[in-house]
Amino acid sequence: MKFNKIVFPVDFSARSRGAAHYVEALARRFNPAVEMVHVLPPPHYEAMSIEVSGPALAEVLAAREAHARKQLSGFLSDEMAAFDVRRTLLEGEPGARLAEFAAEQGADLVAIATHGYGMFRRFLLGSVAAQILHDAKCPVLTGVHMEEAPPMDKIEFLRVLVALDFNPEGVKVLRWAADFAQEMGAKLVVAHVAPSLEGQSGESYDPNWRDYFASSAKARLDEMLDEVGVKHAAVVIDYGDVAHQVCELAAAEKADLIVIGRGHTADGMFGRLRAKAYSIIRMAPCPVVSV
Fold first, then answer.
1. SS3 215
2. Measured between alpha carbons, how far is 280 from 273 in angstroms, rounded to an integer?
3. CB atoms within 10 A of CB 40
4. Helices (H), 206-267
5. Residue of 117, 162, 118 whose CA lies nearest to 262
6. How far apart are CA 193 and CA 242, in angstroms?
7. For site-directed labelling of 273, which of 21, 189, 264, 284 has its Cα 20 to 30 A away?
8. Which phi and psi (to 5°) does residue 55 adopt?
9. Residues facing 254 on adjacent strands
10. What is the pTM of this model?
11. How far is CA 68 from the centre of its chain?
């Protein structure tokens, strides 16, 4: 596994400072180029306290850009001095512009903090992070507890949990998780969560349904592990709400990282796990990489 380039969007918040610790931990291991980037959203003239136009407007926008450049140039300058960091200021709609920038740079990873809520509250995920998760073609590392991140030298990836459904890209997700775990010398836990078929009042199901699903899922996971060439991994099969159970498993395993698949626009309808990606990120006890 190689990380040649990591795109690291920042908004100068405590969340970005915490996310930087994970970027630094990966940079210390892989020595990538780090593209620290901040996006100035389009100016909303209606929100300005005074009406300006012509030269006055140009001055306002120039001052806005100069302030952002100063913040960006000084942000984490001492903390990240030992790494290969390039700082870039962009303009545009942040989510779309960042996904575009990551593609232009050929990024191997985007690392971004999210605050856990946004414009579309049903997702309970920051709108910028949500758009990057939707649009970016490379893996995305994010989490809602980044401001609580330990210092770089305390971050270890000793346990990696990969949650799989059986969509066509599941092998790709497993391969990424297995390569990362091998590079880090981490324990790999492979999990699949099936929907529960426990009968409601008055409903009747075959009492052996768990055994049937467990044997079927285990056989499919074994096939995927053989295809990827993984010889040693713990396999866990659970039942119930996908997002809740994945996060419960991560907590029980004391996972340092969760790896999941996610959908892209071209994929059409998401699989069961992909439809739960936002909820997993929101509830996860550790950072999540969406492949």
1. helix
2. 9
3. 17
4. 209-228, 242-253
5. 162
6. 6
7. 21
8. -60, -35
9. none
10. 0.87
11. 25
Q: Classify the phi-psi angles of 124: left when phi > 0, otherwise alpha if psi is within -120 to 50, otherwise beta.
A: left
Cα separation, 20 vs 22, in Å, equals: 5
Distance between CA atoms of 259 and 161, rounded to whole angstroms? 6
Unique residue bearing structure tokens 């740079």: 105
For 1-153, CATH gives 3.40.50.620
Count of residues for the chain? 291
**Which residues, in sequence order, are CB contacts of 55 under 8 Å at separation 6+?**
none
Q: For residue 214, give both structure tokens.
A: 């467990």
Please answer whether residues 281 and 114 qualify as being in contact, where contact means their C-beta atoms are separated by less than 8 angstroms: yes
In the chain, where the domains are located:
1-153, 156-291
* Superfamily of chain region 156-291: HUPs (3.40.50.620)
Q: What span, in angstroms and rounded, lies between the C-alpha atoms of 284 and 271? A: 19
Token look-up 């901040």 returns: 38
Q: What's the CA gap between 161 and 157, in Å, rounded?
A: 11
Distance from C-alpha of 275 to C-alpha of 279, rounded to nearest angstrom:
9
User: What does the pLDDT profile of the chain (291 residues) look like in tens digits?
Assistant: 889 999 999 999 999 999 999 999 999 999 999 999 999 988 764 445 456 556 776 787 889 899 999 999 999 999 999 999 999 999 999 999 999 999 999 999 999 998 654 444 334 456 788 889 889 999 999 998 898 999 999 999 999 999 998 888 899 999 999 999 999 999 999 999 987 665 544 555 556 667 777 888 999 999 999 999 999 899 999 989 999 999 999 999 999 999 999 865 444 433 455 668 888 998 999 999 999
Are the CB atoms for 128 and 93 separated by under 8 Å?
Answer: no
